[in-house]
Amino acid sequence: MLALSVRQPWAWMIIHADKDVENRDWPTKVRGRILIHAAKTMTVEEWRPAWNFSQGTDAPAKANLAGLTRENIQRGGVIGSVEIYACVTHSPSHWFMGKYGFLLRDPRPLPFTPWPGRLGFFDVPVEGLPAETRRALLEVS
User: Fold this and answer.
1) What's the structural domain count of the chain?
2) Is residue 87 part of a domain?
3) pTM of the full predicted structure?
4) The pLDDT of residue 141 is above 80
5) Taking Cα atoms as reference points, which of 133, 87, 76 lies closest to residue 110?
6) CA 57/CA 89 separation, integer angstroms
7) pLDDT by residue (tens digit) across 40-95?
8) Residue 27 belongs to a domain
9) Helix or strand or coil: residue 114?
10) What does the alpha-carbon distance between residue 133 and residue 141 come to, in Å, rounded to a whole number?
């Protein structure tokens, strides 16, 4: 299954806080369900601006309710799946700020699975994922 590594807290916002666009400098023709991988690296300089940008959405309230902090946010593994249904150069979504936006829908959290990330899309063999994660993926297929 294809996966896309996304820096935190953006990956969390995709899966848990209705972030419906993933911004990139490059387009994609990929469509369908992919895994969201939370990158291992995250700096304070990335954390604060992400939350500032999310003001006006329900992301900060959801994060607060979940007790999410920079120290406890999951990194370095698969955290969920989402469907990519388009790639655009403009969008009315609050989340659009890139040259290209991958439009996302139907996010599904998955049990955290440590996994090495890569740049761009990369393959994750489903049979290499824990049984609980494989079962959850079958439910959305």
Assistant:
1) 1
2) no
3) 0.93
4) no
5) 133
6) 22
7) 999 888 899 999 999 989 999 999 999 999 999 999 999 999 999 999 999 999 99
8) no
9) strand
10) 13
CA distance 51 to 31: 28
Within a domain: 100 = no
Nearest to 70 by CA among 90, 48, 92: 48
Of 17, 26, 18, which is closest to residue 4 (Cα–Cα)?
26
What pLDDT score does 137 carry? 84
- What does residue 38 show for φ and ψ, rounded to 5 degrees? -85, 115
The domain in which residue 57 lies consists of 2-22+32-82+106-140
pLDDT tens figures, 105-128: 999 999 999 999 998 999 999 888
In one letter, which amino acid is 94?
Answer: H
Surface-to-core class of residue 94, CB atoms within 10 Å of its CB (0-12 exposed, 13-18 middle, 19+ buried): middle
Q: Please answer whether residues 126 and 140 qualify as being in contact, where contact means their C-beta atoms are separated by less than 8 angstroms.
A: no
94 assigned to some structural domain:
no
pLDDT of residue 98: 82
* CA pair distance 38, 42, nearest whole angstrom: 10
Residues 6+ apart with CB under 8 A from 138: none
